[in-house]
Amino acid sequence: MTITWRVAVGSDEAGYEYKEAIRQDLEKDPRVELVRDFGVKAGEVVAYPEVGLAVAEAVARGEVDRGVLVCGTGIGMAISANKVPGVRATTIQDSYSCERSVLSNNCQIITFGQRVIGLELARRLVHEWLGYVFDPSSPSQAKVGVITAYEQRRGT
C-alpha cells in the first residue's frame, strides 16, 4: 500500500530559503499529492506565529496531512503549531528524532531552524519523515492518547 501525503510548508523570512528548497523537493516526490505553501514570499516579513498557526490549523481541519515549518531555530514554529488543538509538532535535527516524531508521538508537523542545521540535512530529514507512518496499535498510542484526552478535557 502506497501512502500519499498532502503537505503544507511555511516559513518566516528567517527560513525562506530552506522552505523554498523543501517545497521544490516535495513537489517532485511521488509520495506527495499536494503541496500547499503558507509563505513567506521573497523579501516579505511575517511573524513566525502567524505562519505556524496557519499551517497547524490546516492540519487540524484535515486540509493537509502534514506540515513542514522553518524559521531561524524551528523552536518558535513548533511552539506556535502546538497551540492548535489536535496538532503535535516538534523540532527535529537528526534521523532518530525524525523517526520518533512519528512512530512514538504521531507528530503531524516537523520544524527546522535554518540557522541551526544544514540545508542538505533538512532536505534528507523531510524525505525520511515522509516514509514514517504512526501505528495506532503500537504502545505509543496510549501515550499520545493521554495528550489527546488532556486537550479534550481542557477544551483546547
UniProtKB/TrEMBL annotation:
Keywords: Isomerase. InterPro entries: Rib-5-P_Isoase_Actino (IPR011860), RpiB_LacA_LacB (IPR003500), RpiB_LacA_LacB_sf (IPR036569), SPI_LacAB/RpiB (IPR051812). GO terms for molecular function: intramolecular oxidoreductase activity, interconverting aldoses and ketoses. The keyword tRNA processing does not apply. SUPFAM superfamilies: Ribose/Galactose isomerase RpiB/AlsB. Belongs to the LacAB/RpiB family. Its EC number is 5.3.1.34. Pathway: Carbohydrate metabolism; erythritol degradation; Carbohydrate metabolism; D-threitol degradation. It holds the Pfam family LacAB_rpiB. It catalyses: D-erythrulose 4-phosphate = D-erythrose 4-phosphate. It comes from Thermasporomyces composti. This is D-erythrulose 4-phosphate isomerase. PANTHER family: RIBOSE 5-PHOSPHATE ISOMERASE (PTHR43732:SF1), RIBOSE 5-PHOSPHATE ISOMERASE-RELATED (PTHR43732). It comes from the Bacteria. GO terms for biological process: carbohydrate catabolic process; carbohydrate utilization; cellular response to carbohydrate stimulus.
